[in-house]
Amino acid sequence: MAEVRSEILRYRNHKQRVILFLAAMRHFRDDLREHGFNVVYQEFDDNAAFDDLPSAIRQAITDHSPDSLLMLEPGNQALEEQVIGVAEEAGLECTVLDDDHFFCTRSEFADWAEGRSGLVMEHFYRMMRRKTGYLMDGDQPAGDEWNYDADNRESFGKNGPGEIEPPPETSDEVTGSVSAAVDEHLPDLPGHAEPFRWPVTPSGAKEALARFVDHHLPSFGPTQDAMWSARPYLHHSLLSSSINLKLLSPREAIEAAIGAYERGDAPIQSVEGFVRQLLGWREFMRGIYWLNATDMGSANFFDAAEKLPDFFWSGQTEMACLKDVVTQLKETAYAHHIQRLMVAGLFNLLYGTDPKEVHDWFMAFYVDSVEWVTLPNTVGMSQFADGGNVATKPYIASGKYINRMSNYCADCRFKPDEASGGDSCPFTTLYWDFIRRHESYLNSNGRTRLQVRNYDRKSGGEKAAITRRANEVREMVKEGNL
To answer: How confident is the model at residue 134 (pLDDT cuts 50, 70, 90)?
Structure first.
């Protein structure tokens, strides 16, 4: 096992993301040694540390003269190709093992996708429900509905979410030593190292699962899309990093949630929403990634070319929603799916940021990011850069959506109902200008045609004022004055 510098520094990684990955690795190393394994391990702050994983594997082949290599499917296509290449150089067979932390193998997904005119997550999800039997009553879905998404779009209202206890801080000797090494050797990484609240062992992940099921799952469903300032965690499970690092099995998480439903401790709306994220969306993203990884990194359907705005690193902006989300990220390395899609992702889509820069930022700043899930989510779902392989429409909205789903707009100087003028919300301005710039495509997509018609109803004067304001907003972003 090797902590290689090229992986640590591939992106401008948040300190907590680096600490999580390395602390989990070191705990796994220690656990293996306690079970009698001889583990050769290289720490990144050692003078002999390797610059990249192929170099570490070449050295291991030299030191140990193996007959063959075994590799569990990684979460990165390029990494898989590199390891296979090292094996070929050494004249060794490399066997790639299926990752049993997924329900659907890569070949099974490819078989399902073959011959389809379009890949729709809901169709795949229903197939997976039937395959696993999860939330099924014979041949029919439990509760008589496949999908309760329509019941899970409530806001918190004027009174907010109430008091919600944050997860406990993670404190152990291994994590502390990693944090100290990161502070000493990688002081310029963004974000704060503390408070660090992420599980780094299987036992810690199991405790986090129990905490979610017992205290948050009943309330998770209805308000899973809602946001509230300075409240990062709300009722979300916070389990994605544990599952992606294989500290927790997705089967265990799903079955714990279904158990709560069967005991009457959690409503079907919450449980189905949670199951859909793991059995549907997570599996779908992985399948899409391995079908399209070669081309996805360079996809740019709308020819977006702007640089990522500086405030995505600093949080220094007058837009209350983005200021809160980026500040939260700097402190926690976490934001939930609507903050990702409909605040951070939405602004970049409307503004026209280069999708690769958006992807690199998501990879760097989020504690649960790994390429197989972040690339299709960012390039496909968030930025629609793949032209519709992941999503059936671009997810565009004005500031009115953010106002409806949060309290961000209450104290913001920008007005979500206004599209032009000095107080207009940049989201609203750029939303209408995005429709203008991409009217031909949006009018050809049945799911966005109505938005084009709403734009066409505006007078010539209104449209001209929006275009002027959109140009002003772009200049303000570039000058750091927004």
So the answer is: very high
Domain end point (choices 74, 97, 120)? 97
Spatial separation of the C-alpha atoms in residues 64 and 278, rounded to whole Å: 39
Segment 333-367, tens digit of pLDDT: 999 999 999 999 999 999 999 999 999 999 999 99
Angle (nearest 5°) at CA 475 between 471 and 477: 115
Task: Give mean pLDDT, residues 412-419.
Answer: 98
Same domain (yes/no): 460, 341? yes
How far apart CA 148 and CA 306 sit, in angstroms, is 37
Question: What rounded mean pLDDT belongs to the chain?
Answer: 96
What's the total number of domains in the chain? 3
**Residue linked to tokens 């070949």:** 107
Q: 76 and 20, same structural domain?
A: yes
End-to-end alpha-carbon separation of the chain, Å? 45
Instruction: Estimate to the nearest angstrom the gap between the alpha carbon of 311 and the chain centroid.
Output: 19
Structural domain range at position 155:
106-164+216-291
* Residues 22 and 151 reside in one and the same domain: no
CATH number at residue 29: 3.40.50.620
* Domain end call among 57, 80, 97: 97
- Note the pLDDT of residue 48: 79
**The total number of residues written for the chain in this structure:** 482
- The answer to whether 75 and 99 are in contact (CB under 8 A) is no
Phi, psi of 335 (to 5 degrees): -155, 145
Range 47-76 average pLDDT: 93
Residue 85, CA atoms < 13 Å, CB-side half-sphere: 9
As a whole number, mean pLDDT of residues 151-165 equals: 93
User: Per-residue pLDDT for 46 more than 90?
Assistant: no
Angle ∠(84,86,88) on CA atoms, nearest 5: 70
